[in-house]
Amino acid sequence: MIPVAVLTGFLGSGKTTLLARLLRTQQFSRTAVIVNEFGEVGLDHDLIETGEESFVELQTGCLCCTIRGDLVLTLEDLLARRDAGAVAPFDRIVIETSGLADPAPILHALMGDRELARRLTLAGVVTTVDALNGLGTLARQPESVKQVAVADRLLVTKTDLVGSGNETDGLAARLAAINPAAEVLRASYGDVDPERLFDLGLEAAARKGPDLHAWLSVDALAHHPSSAHDTEISCFAIVRAAPIRAVALTLLLEILAEHCGADLLRLKGLVNITECPERPAVIHGVQHVFHPPAWLERWPSPDRRSRLVFITRGIPQAWVEALLAAVEAEVGEVSGDLQ
Amino acid sequence: MSGEVPEHVSELLAQSLAAWRVSGEVAREAAGTLLITADGRCLRISRAPADLPFRWMVDEAGRTRGVTSIAGLLRAIRGALDPGYRPVRLRVAPLPLLPP
C-alpha cells in the first residue's frame, strides 16, 4: 500500500516552499507529487524540483470542487506508469491542494474509489498556516478554517517573520480552538522533520500501538475541549466505558451523516464493540463518507473505553451524547424484545 | 395516541431542536406524551400502541403517522419543522483504514 498525504493550507501559507524543501531530503526522494494550481498559469511546478515523470500538475480548476474525477484518473495513471516502470518506483504520494480548496471532497475522492483503495492508504492531512497572516486569514476565509479543522498536523510557517508575543500567542490559541487534536509544528523556510510531518496516519498509529491514543487525541480534548465560537467549529470527545453494540454504532453514524452532512468535518474513534470485545474497531469519517471499520488485533493499551473524537461545525456535543444514549436504549430494547 | 415517551427521548428531541437551529421547545404532557412547538407548529410524540408495527407516533393537527425507530422519529420531526432539511445518506468508502 502506498501512503497518500494531503498537503493543504491557504494561499501563500508556504505549501510549495515546504514541498520543495521536503523533496530535497533523502526521506522524500521516492515521492510522487500532484500539485493542483488554481489559475491559468501554474507557477508552483517551476518552484519544485522533482522528477518530471512523477510530477503531475492539475490546472483545470480547484481540486475540491471541479476535478475530483481528474484526481482519481491522475492517481490511476500514476500507478499504471509506476507498474510499467515508466516512472521511478515512488513509495509515497503527496497531493498539494490549491490554497482555496476545501480538503473534504479531496479526501472523499481518495476514499471513494474502489480501485485506488486496493493500492493506496490515506497517510493524513497536513495544513500549513502562515505565522504572520494566519490569524487574519482565519478570520476572513472560511476555507482556511476548514483546512485547519481537518488537519492531522498543523505546520506554522514563516516563523522567522514574527517574534514571540501576542501575535503568535493569538494564532496558537486560535488553532487550538479550531483543532486541539492536531499537533502543531513550526517551521521557517519549510525546515521541519519530514517524518514528524507525514508519519501520522492511522497505519502509523496502529503500527506503533500506543500512538493510536495520540491519533485520537482524547487526552488533549479532555483538557482543552474547544469551540471557535465565531466559526462554530468545535472539537470534542465522547468517551464510553460500556461497550457499544455494532448496530448502535451503525445507527449512530447513519443519523449523524443524515442530519449533519458537511457539518461533520471529521470523526475518528476507537470503539469497544459488544460483539467483539477483544478487538477494538477503528472508525474514521469525513463528513458523510466513512472508511469501513478497521479491526485491530488487540487493544493498544489497558484502556478499553470507546473514544469518539468529533470535529464539527455547529453540532452540539450534548446532541451527540443524547443521540448515542437514545440509540443504545432503542437497540437494547429491541434486543430485549427479540429474546 | 398513547404511551409515555422516555426521558432520554425527550432530552434527545430538545437537543435536536438546538442542533438543527429550530427555535422551539419540547414539553411533557400529562399523559406522558411530548408536545413540540416550533414556529407556530405543534407536533405530539407518543409511544406507538403495542398492536401497531411502529415504535413512535407523530401527530400534527390530527394527522398521525407511525415511525419505527429513533432515526425515523428524528427524520419525521425535522422534515416537519425544518424546511431546509436535506438528508444525506451515509456512504462507506472502499478505501481501507489499514492495509489488508
Describe the model.
Chain A is globular. The model of chain A is unreliable at 38-53 and 58-67 (pLDDT under 50). Chain A has a seven-stranded parallel β-sheet, sandwiched between helices. Chain A is built from 14 helices and 14 strands. Chain A has 339 residues and is an alpha/beta fold. In chain A, α3 packs across α4 (103-112), α6 packs across α7 and α13 crosses α14. Helix content of chain A is 39%, strand content 24%. Chain A has helices spanning 15-22, 44-47, 68-83, 103-112, 114-117, 134-140, 142-149, 166-178, 194-198, 202-208, 211-216, 218-223, 246-260, 317-338, and strands at 2-9, 31-36, 55-58, 92-96, 120-130, 153-157, 183-186, 226-228, 233-240, 264-271, 281-286, 289-290, 294-295, 306-313. Chain B has 100 residues and is of the alpha+beta class. The termini of chain B are far apart. In chain B, strands 1-2-3-4-5 form a five-stranded antiparallel β-sheet, with helices on one face. The longest helix of chain B has 13 residues, at 7-19. The mean pLDDT of chain B is 90. Chain B has helices at residues 7-19, 70-81, and strands at 24-28, 34-38, 41-47, 56-60, 63-67, 91-92. The interface between A and B is large, with 47 and 32 residues.
Question: What are the SSEs and their pairings?
Answer:
The complex is a heterodimer of chains A (339) and B (100).
Chain A (H helix, E strand, L loop, with lengths): L1 E8 L5 H8 L8 E6 L7 H4 L7 E4 L9 H16 L8 E5 L6 H10 L1 H4 L2 E11 L3 H7 L1 H8 L3 E5 L8 H13 L4 E4 L7 H5 L3 H7 L2 H6 L1 H6 L2 E3 L4 E8 L5 H15 L3 E8 L9 E6 L2 E2 L3 E2 L10 E8 L3 H22 L1
Chain B lengths: L6 H13 L4 E5 L5 E5 L2 E7 L8 E5 L2 E5 L2 H12 L9 E2 L8
Antiparallel strand pairs in B: 1-2, 2-3, 3-4, 4-5
